[in-house]
Amino acid sequence: MPKFGMLIDLEKCTACQACVVACAVENNLPPGNINDAQMNRIIRWLKILPISDAKSGIFKMTLIPFTCQQCSRPPCTYVCPVSATYKNPDGIIAQVYWRCIGCRYCVNACPYTIKFFNWYEPENPYKENANPDVFMREKGVTEKCLFCHHRLQRAKEAAKYKNREIGSDEYQPACVEACPSRAIVFGNMEDAQSKVAELSHSPRAFRFLEELGTSPNITYLKEIK
Amino acid sequence: MTTEEEIQRIESKVLQSIIIKPLIGYKIFILVCVFFVSLGLFFWIKQITLGLGVTGLNTPVFWGVYIVNFVFFIGISHAGTLISSILRITDTQWRTPFTRMAEAITVFSLPFGVGSVVIDLGRPDRLLHTLNFPHLTSPIIWDVLCISTYLITSCLYFYLALVPDIALCRDILKTVSPFKQKVYKTLSLGWQGTPKDWKTLNKILTGMSIFLFALVISVHTNVSFVFGMTLKPGWHTAVIGPYFVLGAIYSGVATVIVVMAILRRVYSLEEIVREEHFQKIGKFLLTLCCFWFYFTVVEVLTTFYGGEAAHMIVFKAKFFEEYAFIFWLMFVLNFIIPFAVLSNFFSLIKLRTIQNMVIVSIIIDIGMWLERYSIIVPSGARPYLPWQTGHYLPTLTEWSITLMLLFGFFLLLGVFIKFFPIITLWELKESVHTSNPNKSEKN
What we know:
The complex is a heterodimer of chains A (225) and B (443).
Chain A: E1 4-9, H1 18-26, H2 34-38, E2 47-53, E3 60-66, H3 75-79, E4 85-87, E5 93-95, H4 105-109, E6 116-117, E7 142-143, H5 149-161, H6 174-178, E8 184-188, H7 195-199, E9 205-206, E10 218-221
Parallel strand pairs in A: 1-10
Antiparallel strand pairs in A: 1-8, 2-3, 4-5, 6-7, 9-10
Chain B: H1 3-19, H2 24-50, H3 65-89, H4 99-120, H5 129-132, H6 139-172, H7 178-187, H8 195-228, H9 240-266, H10 275-306, H11 309-319, H12 324-342, H13 344-347, H14 354-381, H15 396-419, H16 425-435, H17 437-442
Helix pairs in contact in B: 1-16, 2-15, 3-4, 3-8, 3-9, 3-14, 4-6, 4-15, 6-7, 6-8, 8-9, 9-10, 9-14, 10-12, 11-12, 12-14
């Protein structure tokens, strides 16, 4: 079984936010309103985070597309009291909405703070045009990036129909497809031939909070000066 | 005066609280409690219908006042077990007048601790999922197991220690309402006070004391594990376990002092709960106060000396920034004031009077609530990755629900004292017998 991972080349990324929009549309994320924004309750599974760096008098801003890091040793799944979040064999951290009791323990345990909680019943004005493959969430449950798991499901079904295992690069999440500068690469981390595995050994590669032992499956590429 | 006469006098004195007609003050007290409980219920229903958005919680402060209340009420409940079980094992004499109310505080504060978690859930309707799909590596499941065991055991312990006194009420209180008589008759389980009865009871209570001793440590350590097991800066420390246990006992003993001093005044029990008893429990509180200081210093110093970037951000937020007021207020309320008063200001001025101890105990309770706040909230507001910092201000809903829990606790205590003796009479009688052995032999 493939183990999926993602790679984001920060030198190629223009921070155009196409991935953010693609993700929100694909996964039926409500647009959110001004109150949510003021309370910092907007849900974006993938968001662009600014890191400001004011060293040596020059103010420099690095913009980083940031999403669930799909850790190999995920702190969030260990603490879930009802196994509503767990690690799939294909490396994706799953989230079961109907089982979640809304204790927000996983959200607290996540060192990346990249899981989200539905504080109110989500208001989605585009309900009629929603993606039918993706679950609509309810109030009081946690959600996060699932690497467009429904697309994997489709690909798996297609492979099963042809009586074979799913291939390495057979499916791509919405953000990868939307990226105009091809900064995001997605694929099987265990397949040495795949681009994502190859690039993840690049000398430019780094991962966030690797020192915590979470071994995230999202690699970033950046020249360290 | 003979021992028998003295015992009778004590009995009638203690049972006064059940016999006398409710005073006007008592009625007002109950009305105030009912008002705050219903107000809180209204806000809770609102929260259930609308969602947790009515609170001030947000990303990244996912846990707020409700979890603070959870730790606080579970903490208060530890006093009862400590005073009545641990001090029973070591056979400490001054505990006798405090045991009943201490156990009552345990039993009546625990439901509010558990309730706080249910209130905090996004989906309280799925509460039973914790039993249907338990994930055993989760500290919350450890808590569910631990606290439910604790709740059942302490209720049973409380009830069993109450049985001889209920039987006494059944036998001598003939003037109370038929309803109360029926309650006594049912709940006394046919207790006759034969030597065999006593032997069985003592055996059970001693056994349970030992079990509860282990439970009291494990329950609050588990409560701390909910925080300590995560990687969050400020939570992820080994000292949090003993720190929580100590803090729990500290706030619990303070609560016992407040409740006992009020009851002593209202029902004029000055002869039974004497000044010396309060002096003893006051010294005990002073010991706990010093231990609290020790743990705080250990925690702060370790963080500061290590100087890990993410931990230092939380440290700075607590010491100098947004949460500095709460942190330093907590330090003054939990250590400086109590230490000055309870130690008689380094044995210079006599400050440890009962009245001052009550004030200090209330201060300690407020301080301990703030301590939990300053552990839980700043760590939430300053997560690992620095661009995700946030703020948190509790809303009216959260304050109303907090008051609901507090006054619900008072209400249960208030109802309890109208039905059952507020002092463990049979233990008191035992201590009268042991203190006057010659007199009883003569008669």
